Amino acid sequence: MRYYIADLHFFHEKLNTSMDCRGFADAEQMNEYMVQKWNARVKPDDEVVILGDLSFGKAAQTNELLQRLKGRLYLIQGNHDRFLEDKAYDASRFVWIRPYEEMKDNGRKVVLCHYPILCYNGQYRLDKNGAPKAYMLYGHVHDTFDQRLMERFQEITAASVRQSPDGTIRHIPCNMINCFCQYSDYTPLTLDEWITCDRARRQKKES
Prior knowledge:
Layout: E1 2-5, H1 27-41, E2 47-50, H2 59-68, E3 72-76, E4 94-98, E5 100-105, E6 108-113, E7 134-138, H3 145-159, E8 161-163, E9 169-171, E10 176-178, H4 191-206
Parallel strand pairs: 1-2, 2-3, 3-4, 6-7, 7-10
Antiparallel strand pairs: 5-6, 8-9
């Protein structure tokens, strides 16, 4: 099984009092809750793609954390993953660490980047039933005004039409999902679970 999650920010104390306002008593309580949620879902042989900003801690702290997290880990590098610059961090815990990647997930392309990509590779590709063949998974913007701008862009794009080479008029696909950890109560989710989570969150906002 493969899971995705973004912007956990282990050890980042300020996210309890500003920006996310996560509400934990301190970073230690936040860390323990997130480890518990992770390990309750992930099995040792599962894959977890972390879409950036895993840890705000130092190399030694992050090394210890990584030993507690189950699964085979892949890291899309985020702007706050500063532990990567320290020679003391244990890179062997990750299968790979990259700024950008494209993977296959049950026949669909998954474009992976910490930062949202508005025009992503494979965006226009649909299967014979009209279902998306590509998704863009991102993080970075948390649940901020920038995420509201991303949602407006997606709404405008999805409402727009263009003519395909065969003359068919179609709406422009725009399947971008913010895998922000708070949207899933800090639990890594599969692609299909993120699709459902994203749809439910948007419908709740509209109601």
